[in-house]
Amino acid sequence: KCLVPIPADIDLKTGKPEAAIELGGRPTGLVADGQGTVYVDVVDTDEVAVIDTKAMAILTKWALGNSTRPTGISMDAAHGRLFVGLRSMKVSVVSIVDGHEIAGVNINAQIESTAFGNGKVFVACTDGNVRIFGQNAAGQYVIEQTIRAGEMARAMAVDGKTGTVYVPALDFDASHRPVRDSFKVMVLERK
User: Fold this and answer.
1) What's the predicted TM-score (pTM) here?
2) 159 near 117, Cβ under 8 Å?
3) What is the DSSP secondary structure assignment for residue 169, as one 8-state letter?
4) Residues 87 and 109: beta-carbon distance below 8 Å
5) Other C-beta atoms within 10 Å of 112: how many?
6) How far, in Å, CA of 162 to CA of 139, rounded?
7) For the residues 170-186, what does the mean pLDDT come to?
């Protein structure tokens, strides 16, 4: 329930990190702006905590609404937007200036994680699909594509320059048990 900074030059013999930042709930993800600010989604309190990494202090917390249960967070730093995946089956597009919701995108499936790359938002869901959305010419966020990634394809990494998405996946048998040696990393590329 806290964020523990671990400096690159930590003493491996003592293993002592700096003081922890108490978040008041369980974090499920974080994203950094590269300028010293980290945004952490806190599932227990339905908030995004904004942290100054230089001062190692919480600057503010933004409420996401009741029973939203954030599950993943990503950012478009160039446009000042956070994409917060919610258990309420939507992605909340949040301003990094003041935390207000700019838009909500209905996903129609439980969300596990979000990622941003190459101008698109990628959303991994418990139904085994990755949904991709972006802004249309009118500025509205719309789902552009749904790709079947397979069961347990719930985490992602996105190459921010190419938009290539890497999704770890696992096959299951009829009893919903993992199939031995079926682990793979799917590479999703936009054509």
Assistant:
1) 0.86
2) yes
3) E
4) no
5) 21
6) 22
7) 86
